[in-house]
Amino acid sequence: MSANIVIDGIFVGNGVGSVALASVNVAVPVWSIVISISLLIGVGGGTLYSIASGAQDTEKAQRAFTLAMTSITVIMIVIGITGYFAVEPLAYLFGANDETLAYATDYMQIIFMWAPILAWENALSIFVRNDGSPKLAMIGLVISALLNIVLDYWMIFILNMEVTGAALASVIATAIGLLIYCIHFLKNGSGLKFIRKPWQQDDLMMIGKLGMPNFLSEAGTAVFVVGYNTALAYYAGTTGLAAFSVINYLHTFMFLAFIGIGQSIQPIISFYYGAQKYASIKHTVKIAEITTVLLGIGFLIVGWTGAGGLVSIFGIEDEAVRQLAKKGIMLFFIGYVFMGINFIYMTYYQSIAYVRPSIGITLFRGFILLIAALLILPLWLDTTGIWLALPAAEALTAIFLLLVARPGIMRKELKNRGL
């Protein structure tokens, strides 16, 4: 899904223009709404599903799946209808002006219209992974991303559908991914079944509780965007805002990549937790640590060696914007070395149904420390301090977790929390 957003930005920037690129950036919060809610219910339901599966409680697992998918359907229908008919006020709320309004509303209406499909695809991919088919989930995501590239080119450059084409390309590609996930229902031994059992309020409360850290992480994107926009508008004006639009598109991809790694270990940890296999949980955490650190270093190397190329793919020609964006990439990408560690431990606590530390990690790295860094660092370092705000927040959180939380996690014995 993160690839779809970035691909839209690349094709719109090169095929329609910088105003259209800014317009699609205005519409990014709509994606955040869809993704955050599908993560809230999907990850919460998926965690409960895996814990119940590990404990051999098939009825509870299927009840969690049914409740999660039904809840997502109802919520997305309400949001889709409301957003479609209130699209102009929402566009202005998200930062549109008279110049970008038309493009922004065209894009947003398509996303709101098909919001249930977008949310189903994200949530079902989580359940497919939790039910033992990670390869199918990966195939669906890869095919969806590749198809979106083809459709973006066809609709923008061939059919001249501008931002409407970009939105339709994302929807169609996502729908194909959803169809691929449905193959899992035909698989022998599939545990994903809709049942007509009485719903229990405790299940709904637990789904919301378990999914809250992911919801807050995605919702924190709004804090991140508003904070950076405000700081850069004050210290660098329009040039700073234009440079940030490039980095924000790139950050969306990197950020959701780490969320994806967190989602990949969640079903493993939850299942082992339900099955009382704590040594396997420790092993999973260690592998995840290595993976995220290597990925973060890889992102940093790409940023340091290819900053100019990353800016160019969005069609940015203004030299002042290019230079500020290149500087921002080289500083901002330092945060990715630490970000993965934070998501690993957030996911660990969430996966064993110990949500309080998970929420604490999310609030500190994405809200408290980030806002403090955006207020303090620019006073000393000007725009350099703005670019370093996120790396500082991620680094402080990661260092604390490695020094304080990790030793305890690696030593303690498993204590089932009775779910």
What report would you give on this structure?
With 419 residues, the protein is mainly α. It folds into 2 domains: 1-199, no CATH class; 215-419, no CATH class. Helix content is 84%, strand content 0%. The chain contains 15 helices and no strands. It has helices at 2-15, 18-54, 58-85, 87-93, 101-113, 115-130, 134-158, 162-181, 201-274, 278-312, 319-332, 336-351, 355-381, 383-387, 389-411. Helix 13 (355-381) packs antiparallel against helix 15 (389-411). The longest helix has 74 residues, at 201-274. It is globular. 55% of the residues are buried. The model has no long low-confidence stretch (mean pLDDT 87). This is Multidrug export protein MepA. Belongs to the multi antimicrobial extrusion (MATE) (TC 2.A.66.1) family. MepA subfamily. It is a multi-pass membrane protein. Keywords: Antibiotic resistance, Cell membrane, Membrane, Transmembrane, Transmembrane helix, Transport. It is found in: Cell membrane.
Quick rundown:
This protein is mainly α. It has two domains: 1-199, no CATH class; 215-419, no CATH class.
The oligomerization state is single chain
SSE string, helices as H and strands as E? HHHHHHHHHHHHHHH
Mean pLDDT: 87
**Number of spatially distinct domains:** 2
Radius of gyration: 21 Å
Uncertain runs: none
Strand content: under 5%
* Helix content percent band: over 70%
Structural class: mainly alpha
Characterize the largest beta sheet: strand count, sense, and whether it forms a barrel: none
Family: Belongs to the multi antimicrobial extrusion (MATE) (TC 2.A.66.1) family. MepA subfamily.
Membrane topology: Multi-pass membrane protein
Keywords: Antibiotic resistance, Cell membrane, Membrane, Transmembrane, Transmembrane helix, Transport
Main location: membrane
